[in-house]
Specification:
heterodimer; A: mainly alpha; ABC transporter involved in vitamin B12 uptake, BtuC; B: 343 residues; mainly alpha; globular
Chain lengths: 320, 343
């Protein structure tokens, strides 16, 4: 009865599921499955890393903890679904649509619902992002059906390749490559481009940046757009690995928060490492514990450890 | 103490409200269909749960995103004891409230070390763990999914009709209302508010943060468990679905919309959550409609009127009264000028 977490999931209906139940998860997991599970975990971890870095980026520039981050990624993924699956247009166009939509949505949220709150307590801004979470999740439910089946967005063909000792899918390889590539690009973006430099300036000292002529408002909008795009890419890449519905991708925000907190909400490399660690732990735990809920316990554990371990770094968030 | 300090005028209003509202609530079902009585009971149950949220989020200022799960815990414990162990409904309900209170004490522990926004993340992670590990657990309910729970009897009375169960719900609701009002007016409420306004200040004036924070979480979870136990009795079965994290967010959202520190706000929030989708005749989309409306309202409200609808209405009606008074005193030709001065 407990052998297939996916049946349980359907049975639970609207009930939340965390850490996406990986598709093709072996029914019997033993230690021999450690390597393939770890690889799946690394891939999952990089998918946590993208939205987690988005959360850090948004937090560093605009000082808002974005609870709607997963919901933004989810909604953008469904835009790709609409374009690529429902309308049957080419997949690259679907991905492009999702990315453009996410950028616009992020900038819209910042411009019209976060900027008017300047000077208000941080908790007020968080309440607004909770509002967006509810709004986007329910809107997606209206349009695409909350518990209906949705075909995943396949960017690469569903095939596997034999590497020494382990079989990996093209999807895993592509995801890993794309996520690492994006992370490197993001690091370069902050070092090389003017906008990246401006974002770092705003993150360090808003007043000084403003005096030096940085257009803080524009930088904030750009950060929200970029952060949202990262969530959208993660959502699209994750869709073939999980059950594509309105809830699971929205819940991605919890794992992303865990990684972002472990990175002290400042460090992108630490966030990336923590995300991969979280993915691997969530993936490998099925060897020892069969309950699908064990994954959420790991997320909770990482959140608590990160909070206590990074206390001084997180002082600003903790004290508001 | 605080009750004695209450102005006579306000006391009179309160007495009048009790004299009018309570008999009205008792006899209301006479004029209603069974279905509407059922809805009204549901509303009262959610009102009780939201009283708990008023304590922890409104008075104590801790953003808790796990309140629906705490209600679910009460529901699950009651259902398990009745179904798997053959307990009497009332003893099961009392046991579930004790369990809820204890769970509140334990789950309040992170709040001693972690404050503000970070606590919202922790409670969300706890909520997620509850959704997946605790509430659907086979250990807890013996079976996955629902099993019916017969409506209890109370002494010689059978509560199998919706109307009879409504009266019980109403009695519990009134008791909970009295309790939450006296907590708010009493020493406990003042301590909670002091901690919300400034933890350092409260600690400096001798309040034990540990004691009052844990008390706040425990009391809040206690209210939630009462609501959960009643809900199981009302619905007649237990499933994990109504107690998931989205409902927690909806509860907090609705309460913030109405005014998170107001008891009347919690009752209005319960009405909105349960009855608004019904009024709009969209029962099929109940969940999504509630989420959509509360999300949209929350965003607009936070920007336009952050203090919440009830304080805002009170403020603007006072302002209106002042303006009307001003008009009546002012000469007719100065009317236009007085409009620019809201007082």
């Amino acid at each position: 009865m407990r052998s297939d977490p996916r049946t349980d999931q359907r049975r639970a209906g609207m009930c939340a599921r965390d850490g996406p139940a990986l598709r093709g998860e072996p029914t019997v997991s033993t230690l021999s499955q450690l390597l393939p599970l770890t690889i799946a975990g690394i891939v999952l971890g990089t998918m946590y890393a993208l939205p987690a870095m988005g959360i850090v980026l948004i937090y560093k520039t605009s000082r808002v903890l974005n609870f709607a981050h997963g919901a933004i990624g989810m909604f953008s993924t469904f835009i790709a679904y609409q374009v690529g699956i429902v309308w049957g247009l080419p997949i690259w166009l679907a991905v492009l649509a999702a990315v453009v939509f996410a950028g616009l949505l992020g900038a819209f949220i910042e411009r019209f619902t976060i900027r008017p709150l300047e000077g208000r307590p941080p908790l007020t801004k968080v309440v607004v992002t909770l509002g967006w979470l509810l709004l986007l999740t329910s809107l997606a439910g209206f349009i695409w059906g909350a518990s209906a089946y949705h075909a995943p967005i396949q960017i690469v063909p569903e095939a596997t390749v034999q590497l020494p000792g382990v079989r990996v899918s093209y999807l895993q390889l592509m995801t890993l490559g794309l996520a690492s590539g994006l992370t490197v690009l993001l690091a370069l973006f902050f070092r090389v481009t003017r906008l990246g430099l401006a974002m770092r300036a705003v993150a360090d000292n808003v007043q000084a940046a403003r005096i030096l002529g940085v257009r803080v408002d524009l930088v904030n909008s750009a950060a929200w757009a970029l952060g949202s795009i990262l969530a959208a890419i993660a959502g699209v890449l994750l869709s073939p690995m999980i059950t594509l519905d309105t809830i699971q991708l929205t819940l991605l925000v919890v794992s992303a928060f865990a990684a972002a907190l472990a990175g002290g909400l400042v460090s992108l490399p630490a966030t990336f490492a923590a995300a991969v660690l979280l993915g691997v732990l969530q993936s490998d735990v099925v060897i020892w514990v069969r309950t699908s809920g064990a994954k959420s316990l790991i997320t909770l554990g990482i959140v608590l450890v990160a909070m206590l371990w990074r206390r001084s770094r997180l002082a600003e968030v903790l004290d508001t | 103490m605080a009750t004695e300090a209450m102005p006579t005028r306000r006391k009179q209003t309160a007495t009048a409200a009790v004299v009018v509202a309570v008999p009205l609530a008792v006899f209301l079902p006479v004029a209603m269909t069974d279905f509407h009585v059922f809805l009204l009971s549901q509303t009262l149950v959610f009102g009780i749960a939201l009283f708990g949220l008023v304590i922890v989020a409104g008075l104590l200022g801790q953003p808790s995103l796990m309140h629906a799960e705490l209600m679910g815990l009460g529901a699950a414990v009651t259902a398990t004891l009745v179904q798997a162990y053959g307990w009497n409904y009332w003893s099961a309900a009392i046991a579930s409230v004790i369990t809820g209170y204890a769970a509140g004490l334990v789950l309040g522990l992170p709040a001693l070390r972690i404050r503000g926004l970070a606590l919202a993340i922790v409670t969300l992670a706890i909520a997620q763990t509850f959704d997946q590990l605790v509430l659907p657990s086979t250990l807890l309910s013996g079976t996955v999914g629902s099993r019916t729970i017969p409506r209890p009897t109370l002494g010689p009375f059978s509560l199998s009709s919706d109307r009879a169960f409504y009266q019980v719900t109403l009695a519990v609701f009134l008791a909970a209302l009295w309790l939450v009002l006296s907590i708010r007016r009493g020493k406990l409420g003042r301590m909670f508010t002091a901690i919300r306004e400034s933890e350092k200040g409260a600690a400096a004036s001798g309040a034990s943060l540990t004691r009052y924070k844990l008390l706040g979480f425990a009391a809040s979870a206690g209210f939630a468990a009462v609501a959960g136990a009643l809900y199981v009795g009302l619905i007649g079965s237990y499933t994990a679905a109504p107690y998931d994290w989205l409902h927690s967010i909806v509860m907090l959202a609705m309460l913030s919309i109405m005014g998170s520190a107001t008891v009347s706000g919690s009752i209005m929030a319960a009405f909105t959550i349960i009855d608004m989708p019904q009024i709009l005749q969209q029962v099929k989309l109940l969940d999504q409609l509630t989420q959509f409306t509360s999300g949209l309202t929350l965003i607009i409200q936070t920007i336009m009127a952050p203090e919440g609808a009830i304080p805002m209405t009170a403020k603007s009606s006072r302002r209106l009264a002042a303006r009307v008074k001003g008009w009546m005193e002012a000469a007719p030709e100065t009317q236009v000028q007085s409009e620019g001065d809201p007082g």
